[in-house]
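New to this. Please check this record:
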Amino acid sequence: MKFICLAFFCLFAITKGASQEQPLQDSIATLDKRYKEDQFYFAVTYNLMAQKPNNVSQTGFSSGFHLGGIKDMPINKRRNVALGLGLGLARNAFNHNLLIAKTESGKYEYLNLSESDITHSKNRLINYLVELPLEFRWRTSTAESYKFWRIYTGVKLGYSFYNVAKYEGSLGSIKTRNLEQLNKFQYGLTLSFGYNTWNFHIYYALNPMFNDQAYVNDEQIAINEVRAGLIFYIL
């Protein structure tokens, strides 16, 4: 009789354990099935001007701020490889010695301040863009862990909806808004890599900032943007 009672108790315990384990397994399976990295991002960058005309240089610190969200679309069973499509806003500033002004006739003039007697306390170009990042994403994340290594690479498309060149110096204060010779559409390659929230970010433009109508001293202004800094991903 004792043996029958013991066997019944063991059978009940096993059945009870199995019934509790199954919902847990179903929960994990559901979690794995739905796991992805929908994220907001915020980036701070140092902006460089590559392929500058002769004697054109940057002055001071040129900064960039980027904010947006990315839709994560896993493409493998483990869900650690994905495509990302996003939308964001950016503000990029460039401090330099190239005076940009618009004459009364509507013609743009570019003057290298280092080659003239004109002094300045401020001379910068600020560009505001709507950005569309497209990424190929690899990470070491799991459904239970939010701290992981990541490498995200891709392209970023940008549309300049507002820009302004600001000068302050011996000529007074000059503001030139919405430069027609600044390329509205800009695009480049991106690379982000790091661990958890802190990640390095690099952007290299594939097209110049200005169109082929912008010249200084008979030399085309074929400046390309390079941005390097930190990007923070927030779930």
